[in-house]
Amino acid sequence: MTHPGIEMVRSLLEGSGFNSGTIVERRAAMEQTLASSPPPVGVEVRPDVVGGRPAEWITPHGGSTDAVVLYLHGGGYCIGSLGTHRDLASRLAVAAGTAVVTLDYRLAPEHPFPGAVDDACAAYADLLDRGVDHSSVAVAGDSAGGGLAVASVLALGPRGLPSPAAVACLSPWADLTQSAASYRHQGEADPIVTRAGLDEMAAAYLAGADPRHPLASPLFSDHLGDLPPVLVEVGAHEVLLDDALGLVERIRAAGGTATVTVWPELVHVFQAFPSTLVPESDQSIAAIAAFLADHLAAAG
């Protein structure tokens, strides 16, 4: 059985340029598709500079500012912006009842690996410098931002920084080799990403670096057991399904704590779709928010 909302998404994306054209053209298509939404309801959005990069503080009305979720947007390390992910981050802020900081980290090919990792770590360090305790910070992200969330937390220890309270990943891109079976088997089912598109963006981001480098592809890290609790949410019909499952399996094998939910019939970062189209999007966001709130409250 095909999910009716996903079929509508497929129709809407046809001819949008979302999965075709140059990286510059894809950036424009993503902005047109996702950043043209009206301002989010129920939050205050305040521009800032965090870790030397443009950022936005998204605070729900009446929500807590004692804890912070550092959110890293998706887009294959090459596209995406504060605007394209403002709605998703705002829905997460409202559901969690806490502030979310979105980061405009540098994009490839202009700024290849490890630029995004450096920016995410700098933003996290800035939050700590502002007096936010590390136990009151969680890191989250979708797609490339999900892989970046894991990679940046892995990079904190060698930089002398403590780990956050938790990590949440939405459809994480954790293996830039694109070698898992789901890259071959799910190509027709997922209208959001393709293996060819990921290959192109991986090449742009890596710029000759080893795709198995643990801060580019955290699936291959030897230190996954050092991560704080990790939550992964993924669709059953997406190209990155095996990235998500493999990441959780390896975290557990290394002695860490990781939980995964696979949503039947759903595709890449389905949480970004309106609940009127995909009701499961709000259900998943509520689960992610509860996980983050629980760990932030327990740590605090």
Keywords for this structure?
Rossmann fold, eight-stranded mixed beta sheet, globular, alpha/beta, single chain, 8 strands, 300 residues
Name of the CATH first level: Alpha Beta
- Determine the strand fraction and express it as a percent band: 15-25%
Radius of gyration: 17 Å
Structural domain count: 1
Please state the overall shape, judged from the principal axes of the Cα atoms. Answer: globular
What is the average of the pLDDT values? Answer: 92
What is the fold-level CATH name, i.e. the topology? Rossmann fold
Our count of helices gives 9
Parts with pLDDT < 50 across at least 5 consecutive residues: none
Terminal residue distance: 44 Å
Helix share bin: 25-40%
> What is the tally of beta strands?
8
Q: Which strand order do you get reading across the main beta sheet?
A: 1-2-4-3-5-6-7-8
Largest sheet: 8 strands, mixed
CATH superfamily: Alpha/Beta hydrolase fold, catalytic domain
- Which structural class best describes the helix and strand composition? alpha/beta
Explain what this protein looks like in three dimensions.
The protein has one domain: Rossmann fold (3-Layer(aba) Sandwich). Helices cover 37% and strands 18% of the residues. It is built from nine helices and eight strands. It has helices spanning 4-13, 23-34, 86-96, 115-129, 144-156, 182-185, 195-206, 241-253, 280-299; strands spanning 43-50, 53-60, 64-72, 98-103, 137-142, 166-170, 230-235, 258-263. An eight-stranded mixed beta sheet has the order 1-2-4-3-5-6-7-8, sandwiched between helices. Helix 3 (86-96) packs across helix 9 (280-299). It is globular and about 45 Å long. The chain starts with a helix and ends with a helix.
